[in-house]
Design a protein that fits this description.
The chain is an alpha+beta fold. The chain has two domains: 3-68, no CATH class; 76-164, no CATH class. Helices cover 48% and strands 13% of the residues. The protein has helices at 3-16, 18-31, 80-83, 94-108, 112-118, 127-138, 151-164; strands at residues 37-41, 46-50, 59-62, 65-68, 76-77, 92-93. The strands form two sheets. It has a four-stranded mixed beta sheet, sandwiched between helices. The protein has a two-stranded antiparallel sheet with strand order 5-6.
Amino acid sequence: MSLWQRRALMTLGVLWALPNSALGFVAGLLAMPFGARPKFSSRDLALVFHGFPLGPGGAMTLGNIMLSTHSDMDTLCTTYAHRAKWCVQPKTRIGDHERAHVLQYMALGPLFLPLYFMFGGVSVRNCFERAADRYALTGRGWWPWLKANSKAETLRLGESSARSIDLP
């Protein structure tokens, strides 16, 4: 695929995700008096509001807008499968996990949120979250309906990840 074709697809994806991005942008603007600060991240394909008052910690994505409690997107986080004790996996960069959601929004546009909640919301059972974790771990597999993002494959990825790190 040529450079202009990639740029055209990215532009179409950003436009398709725009209704969700507008929600995120409004949320980010409303949080600015409480300490949230916007910064564009070309690496993560998003405008990131750092210091977003979102509770105990973490991030969420709405279109091409990330709302993060952290001061940068290099913070390490545990995967959903690890947190649910399905398997042992190394920590991942939160920006990589959230970038997978940006790509999902760019592909699904306004369908993302209804599908996300229909498949389980914020949960290890949600194929969107498993796909985002896989993408953060491997750099591949952000599409939620890949066989690679099934529970069985998530457990297998956890086993191979556990072998690649030193465990006590």
